[in-house]
Amino acid sequence: MAANFYPPCPQPELAMGLPAHSDHGLLTLLIQNQIGGLQVRHNGKWINIDPIPNSFLTNIGDHIEILSNGKYKSVLHRAVVNNRDVRISIAMPHGPALDTVVSPASKLVEDERNPPEYRAMKYREYLELQQGSMLNGKSCLEIVRNKVI
Prior knowledge:
10 strands, Jelly Rolls, IPNS-like_sf, 4-stranded antiparallel β-sheet, IPNS-like_FE2OG_OXY, alpha+beta
């Protein structure tokens, strides 16, 4: 679980609450106060996601993208600050057991037309990779992507 506290910033245009990234795991449940600040990348643009009172927001994580062999994409998102109000959010990522080897589902990669887009990796190793890296878009997912030669 990650609790985030974003105080008002006198010059929000010069600061970033949380840089663009995707989440590890299968799904992330997010609860937040009514102050906006979450943005998702859609068609090359940052889109504001307005909070819905008394609700959870669900993001698809990197491991759904891996399991689906890229059919379902993890959500690239970021948090921006404002100069008026405190923003609070609590993110609860959900993933497999740490020693689970995650790879594309075998039914999705059973012939040459559909090769595995991602290499198999223990969930623990992916977490260590992500924790040892700066948040930078989907850079960790790119590391485990199989390169076409």
